[in-house]
Amino acid sequence: MAGYQGTSTRRSGHEALAAVVEAERREINTVLDGTIVSYDRTTQQATIQPNLKRKFGDKELAAPQLQKIKVVQAKGGGHGVHVDLAPGDPVTIHFRQRSTDTSQTEGGDADGSPGRMNDLSDAVAFPGGGADAQVQSNMPAGGAHFGKTDGKSGLQSRADGSAAIVGGPNGSDKFVVSSAGKIDMKSESGDSLLDIVRAALVLIKDHLNGGAPTDAPSQAAATALIAKIDGMKA
Predict the structure, then answer these.
(1) For 182, which of 11, 36, 96, 178 could close a Cys bridge (C-beta 3.0–4.6 Å)?
(2) In angstroms, rounded to a whole number, what is the distance separating the alpha carbons of residues 214 and 206?
(3) Residue 185 in contact with residue 167, Cβ under 8 Å?
(4) In this structure, are residues 223 and 206 in contact, taking their beta carbons and an 8 Å threshold?
(5) C-alpha to C-alpha distances, 226 to 55, 131, 207, 219, 221, nearest whole angstrom
(6) Contact 118, 29 (CB under 8 A)
(7) What pLDDT sits at residue 1?
(8) In sequence order, what DSSP letters do the residues of 136-158 get, joined into one string?
(9) What is residue 173's three-state secondary structure?
């Protein structure tokens, strides 16, 4: 078959036709890994280097950089997520099956008439991809994470229905909302702000002034606030 036999062995019409078909297939662009060269967050277009090299005789040439490529950021229903890409970030490049000269610039349908198909100039890129080693770490099991790729800063939802803002050097929970809607705020050391406020209210409630307890209205107010904290703390 073509690709396994040299030109000296292509003596039949079948092998010659197979070689033509293979050569044509090699010119079809579908999906490629790429690397961000530069990104404009205002236009959300990028210059991208496809991770592809081809040999021509004894020379190996890299694919040309793709200019003004639309980067598809997740959006819909008036909401969206945006990642400001940096040089060196991996992307996955898709080559659309028809010319987008009008559909991308003006909206609407692509032109299905004879013309460009799967062409380099009709590319669109999606953030992510790259080598198998380029993974996000410390991701919540059964949940979702939006933030830094090391998992130590951002917003997380958990499998139990809770959510948290994580941050700081160790990436611990800083603001937590339980599945029941209760909340808590914590420092890098793990101290709870609500625990600290509760302890201060207990001191006020149990304070002795010259051996005499705090007046009854103050005690009642402190007790009511303590109950509210106990009811809201995750």
Answers:
(1) 178
(2) 7
(3) no
(4) no
(5) 74, 53, 15, 10, 9
(6) yes
(7) 42
(8) --SPPTTSEEEE-TTSSSEEEE-
(9) strand
Contact 125, 72 (CB under 8 A): yes
Indicate the average pLDDT of the chain. 87
Q: Structure tokens of 76?
A: 């819909």
| Cβ proximity of 48 and 121 under 8 Å | no
Q: How confident is the model at residue 173 (pLDDT cuts 50, 70, 90)?
A: very high
Residue 11's pLDDT band (cuts 50, 70, 90): low
> Which has the closest alpha carbon to 3: 26, 22, 29?
22
C-alpha distance across the termini of the chain, in Å: 67
Task: Return the structure tokens found at 98.
Answer: 């028809």
User: Nearest to residue 34, comparing CAs of 10, 17, 52?
Assistant: 52
Nearest to 90 by CA among 53, 52, 39, 129: 129
Query: Rounded to two decimals, what is the model's pTM?
Result: 0.73
SS3 115: coil
CA–CA dist 66, 55 (Å, integer): 19
Task: Summarize pLDDT for 128-153 with one digit per residue, the tens.
Answer: 988 888 899 999 999 999 999 999 99
Rounded distance between C-alpha atoms, residue 153 and residue 186, angstroms: 14
Report residue 28's pLDDT band, with 50, 70 and 90 as the boundaries: confident
Tokens representing residue 231 in the block: 């009811």
